[in-house]
Amino acid sequence: MQITDIRAIQPAGNNSPPDWRTSLGQILVAIDTDAGITGYGVGGGGLAGQHVVKTVLRDLLLGRNPEEISQLWGEMYQATLAFGRKGIAIMALSGVDLALWDLQGKREQQPVVELLGGTPEIKIPTYHTVWSTEDLTATGEHAGYKLHLGKVAAPEQRDLMVASIEQARNRIGNSPLLMVDAWMKWDIESTISISQAIKPFQIEWIEEPLSPDDLAGYAVLKEKTEVPIAGGEHEFTSEAFRPLIEQKLHTVLQPDVNWCGGLTELIRIYTMAKEAGLRVCPHRGCEIWALHAITALDSQPLAETGRPWMTWVKGQPDIRQGMIEVSDRPGFGLLFDEHHLQLVN
After folding, report:
1. What angle do CA 343, 255, 185 make, to 5 degrees?
2. Among the three residues 62, 87, 109, which one is the final residue of a domain in this structure?
3. Pairing state between β 229-231 and 144-148
4. Residue 85's closest CA among 128, 52, 36?
5. In whole angstroms, how far apart are CA 83 and each of 50, 52, 56, 76, 114?
6. Please, how many CA atoms are within 13 Å of residue 317, restricted to the half-sphere of its CB?
C-alpha cells in the first residue's frame, strides 16, 4: 500500500469560539492510498497548519508505505525541525499521524484500541469542564467536574476563586471528583495560598497554574502545594514532556493528542509516565482520538468532555450516565462527508 495524496481542510463547526481556537483551529487531514482506503486525522493550526501538511509533509510522504508509522513520524519531525519542535508544525504533524493510525486500523479491519492491545466497548468514566459554577446545574451526570477559572484567575482575585471552588463543591456534593483549571494565569505564591485554602474541598488537581515554560516554578509547587498539580495540555512531543516526567513536576500529565504529535507521541508519553509512576489524563479525552489510547493504555482511566463546536466530526460516541466507550468499527470509527463540509474562511 502506498500513499497517493494528502489533503487538509478546516471545517467550520457550530458556535466555534471567536478566538485562536477557530483562527488556528482544528484541521481535518485525509490520506489517500492506492488500495482505495482513506485515513482521517485531526490536527491543529488553521490555515498555517494546512500549509505545513500540504507542502512539507505531503512532499515527504507521497509514494511511501503508510504502515511505517514510527519511522514516518521521525522523518516528519526532522523535516519540520528548523521551524517546528513545538506549536503549529507539531499540531499539523499530529493530524497526519492520526490519519496514519486510522489507515492502519482500516487496513487490518480493527479499531485502533485493538492495535494498541486493548478491547473496545469498555466503559470509561467522564468529567465535564465548566466555566462557571452556574453551569454545573445544566450538565449531565459525570464522574467529575472541572471548574475553569480562566476568565477570573488573576492572583489578586484569590478570595473570589476560593469562594467559587467552595460553591462548586457544595453544588455537586461530596462524591464527584472536582478539579480546578487556572489556565496559566496564577503565580507561585497565589497557587500555594489557594491550594491551602481549597484543600478541604477534596480537589483532585489544580491544572496549569503557571506558564508551561516555568519549570523552576513548577519545581517549587511540587514541594509546597497542598493539591496535586496537572499540566501538559499546551506542551508538544514526548521530548518536551521528558523534564516534566523525570523531575515529576506534574502529578497528572495532560497531553492533547491533536496537538502533541499525534497518537505515536501519546503512546510514548504513556510509556514514560508509567515508568515514573505518574498519571496521564489526556486533554479532551472523550474525543475519539485520545479515547482509544485511554481505553487500551490507562490503568486509571478518566476522559474529559470534548470540544462542543466540532460538530463536523460524525461517529463520536455518546456519553451515557457519565460513561463513554469506543466502538469496534475499524480505525477510529469516525465518518466524514468531505463534499458537504462547510469550511472556515
Report:
1. 90
2. 109
3. unpaired
4. 52
5. 15, 10, 11, 12, 35
6. 28
Angle between the 263-276 and 88-108 helix axes, to the nearest 10 degrees? 100
Helix (H) or strand (E) holding 203: strand 203-207
Check 128, 142, 148, 283 and give the catalytic one.
Answer: 283
| Contact status, residue 188 vs residue 150, Cβ threshold 8 Å | no
* Same domain flag for 239 and 149: yes
Its domain, for residue 292, covers 115-324
Dihedral, 52, 56, 57, 63 alpha carbons, nearest 10:
150
Same domain? For 160 and 293 the reply is: yes
Cell triple for residue 315?
461517529
Is 283 a residue of the active site?
yes
C-alpha cell at 306: 470534548
The pLDDT value given to residue 140: 76
CB contact at 8 A, 299 and 339:
no
Of the candidates 307, 301, 317, the one whose C-alpha atom is nearest the C-alpha of residue 258 is 307
pLDDT along the chain (345 residues), means of 10: 97 94 96 98 98 98 98 98 97 98 98 98 96 82 92 83 95 95 94 96 97 98 97 98 98 98 98 98 98 97 96 95 96 92 89
Burial class (CB in 10 A: 0-12, 13-18, 19+), 290: buried
Q: What is the pTM of this model?
A: 0.96
**In which element (H, E) is residue 3 found?**
strand 3-9
C-alpha cell at 160: 473570589
CATH code of residue 19: 3.30.390.10
